[in-house]
Amino acid sequence: MSNTPKESKRSTKEKAAAARAAAEAEQRRRDTRVRLIGGAAILVVVALIIGLGIWGSKQNGTAAGSTDVVAGATVPTGVNGADGANAWGVPYNHVSGKPTLAIWEDFQCPSCAQFETSFGASVLKLADDGKVNLVWRPTTFLDTRFAATSPNPNSSHRAAMAWGCAIDAGKTKQFHSTVFANQPATEGDGYTDAQLADFATKAGITGDALTTWKKCYADKKYDQWVTNSYTVFGTEGVTGTPTAYLNGTEVKAATLQDMAALEKLISSTPAS
Amino acid sequence: MSSDLRAWTGTVLRLVLSGVLFWSGIAKLVETDQSRREAILAYRVFPPSWAEFLGWALPAVEVGLAALLLLGLFTRFAAIGTAVLMLGFILGISSVWIRGYSINCGCFGGGGDVSEEGKALRYTAEILRDFLFVGMATWLIAWPTTKLALDRPPLTFDDSDYDDAADENETLEEQSR
Q1: Which of A35, A167, A192, B95 sits 20 to 30 Å CA-CA off B84?
Q2: Measured between alpha carbons, how far is A20 from A60 in angstroms, rounded to an integer?
Q3: CATH of span A90-267
Q4: CB contact under 8 A, B48 and A235
Q5: Where in the sequence is the domain holding B70, given as residue range(s)?
Q6: How many domains are there within chain B?
């Protein structure tokens, strides 16, 4: 503080007040600094969590949609490729002038097995009667969920590959229903390779066809097809299974559990 | 209400909201990538390509707000952030309900599609709970000065030596010129 004559004339009381004010101002500056540092530190931590989190997820690369689709992947007979609606899907039938019902399923998903048991036959009948185009879309999202705990890891992926081989043998719907009918009681227990081979036999694949099936499965012929379909499951933002889309519009879960409502929705929907 | 009681009430609200936000944020952060993604996608509000970013950003922001509220730092700002977040959740849950989907809100992790069972009760409880949090945040927006906080209490104009203080400040400003 400058010591001008004016200053020296000030009373002791005034000087004390000024000193107190200066001390308070200094204290406030210090408090402000603490607050700004605290706030900035929290901001940095938030940014770090987001940045490192996203980076970590990208390194992990197990989430649906995080891998690249290989466009030229080998697909089973009659199965969709990369182009058009329902890429990598398994068409059950073709009728012109009717809407398309696409159903996402994971072979390890209990709700899918329940849906198959309760409504599988009715949905197939709608397709057989030429009322709807049915497309199955395989996904394997449960593999990540049970990666650490399953005695048979990657069961969804292996079951889908096995299905691909069965599609080549012309036993598409038979193998499909056999897997769901033999789903383990505990979700995540999955399927052994021997079980999947047994399903092929149960689906009616015998003789030379079974030999072909076994080679197809052992060679992992449809590995990339299954991965592609799972990737699209992610990029299309599907959250669970069974999830059905009629001409690309999601069918409400309640409608999917009510055959009369589903049939009504299908009959009132024009071809895509 | 005495200003002391009001400040202590604010402290309790701050700590409760902080606890809730810490819990919800950490629960989401420790989930698997797939679960975080499913929880966001289940709302069918954001495009799938946003799911990864939001899956990390939402819990990170929750933890950040929780830290601010715990320390009593920028309390009014943090309370506004909390209220906006909670209103967003209320909107999200209402919109999912109206559109007829049955999801777990994933508020404390574990989001995704679930069975229709007990849907109305579940959504009602979640919305009421979030409105309670909005109410608590609104209190803090109105009275952000609380006890045990790093925030500076606002100038108390009813202070008897207010005039003196103002004069002193002017003097200080003159001197610093």
Answers
A1: A35
A2: 59
A3: 3.40.30.10
A4: yes
A5: 3-176
A6: 1
